[in-house]
Write a structure and sequence with these properties.
105 residues; globular; alpha/beta; Rossmann fold
């Protein structure tokens, strides 16, 4: 079975975990509980072939920013999450995007 490694990145409190859990389990989490690092697996179908998504839900706080290079190095796909009601969270994803480009070169 083919496996795809996806990393979810974004500022703290923007809904990375809520989005990930909603996708994996179909359950929406309303309460904010800061994540350090959570790992999920979901079986999906890609081009009619069974596959597994390995999803890494990362911490959004700056104290864990130093771990991002490792997450990015191991990731194959990336989801950058921001909040529509927090302009700064949108600004915060640009350096993350730049970091992905730098690490994956």
């Amino acid at each position: 079975m083919r496996e795809y490694k996806v990393v979810v990145l974004g500022s703290g409190g923007v809904g990375k975990s809520a989005l990930t859990v909603q996708f994996v389990t179909g359950t929406f989490i309303e309460k904010y509980d800061p994540t350090i690092e959570d790992f999920y697996r979901k079986e999906i179908e890609v081009d009619s072939s069974p596959s597994v998504l390995e999803i890494l839900d990362t911490a959004g706080t700056e104290q864990f920013a130093s771990m991002r290079d490792l997450y990015i190095k191991n990731g194959q796909g990336f989801i950058l999450v921001y909040s529509l009601v927090n302009q700064q969270s949108f600004q915060d994803i640009k350096p993350m995007r730049d970091q992905i480009i730098r690490v994956k070169r």
